[in-house]
Amino acid sequence: MKPYVKFGLLTAVIIGTLAWLAVGGISETKSYYKEVAELKKMGDDVYTKRLRVAGDVAEGSVQRSGSEVRFLLKQNDLTIPVLYDSMDPLPDTFKGGAQAVAHGKMGRDGVFHANKIDAKCASKYEAKPGQKYQPPGQTAPPASDTKASF
Prior knowledge:
Strand order of the largest sheet: 2-4-5-7-6
Helix content: 10-25%
Order of helices and strands: HEHEEEEEE
Structural class: alpha+beta
CATH class of the largest domain: Mainly Beta
Strand content: 25-35%
Number of strands: 7
Shape: elongated
Distance between the termini: 81 Å
Number of helices: 2
Number of domains: 2
């Protein structure tokens, strides 16, 4: 066999292996973003896919027991129980009424088993009535600087 044929075969094997690893890695780490209402409509697919479920944390539903946190995600009149069991701390903004995204898988027990929680408190980022929102650390310019002078 000629050297350039051996080199070509070796190159093809390496490229094929890298492509196979890339496709396998993507399929294992992809997750589907769903809201509570969409989750209820997925049927049996809900048990086989990694999901990110968005909703509001129901007021008064957060129960802590050691490293476990149980709560309800709600959207309109629909709710879904969530179990978060991880050594990672919950975000500071995680509380009743906050918007949250739970990352994980739906269990056959009807509980969403989350391994990561993202949360934000919408009121923390809203402007006060009658004012424009200013990012933290920035101040609004004085009123005299808002008009252009020619």
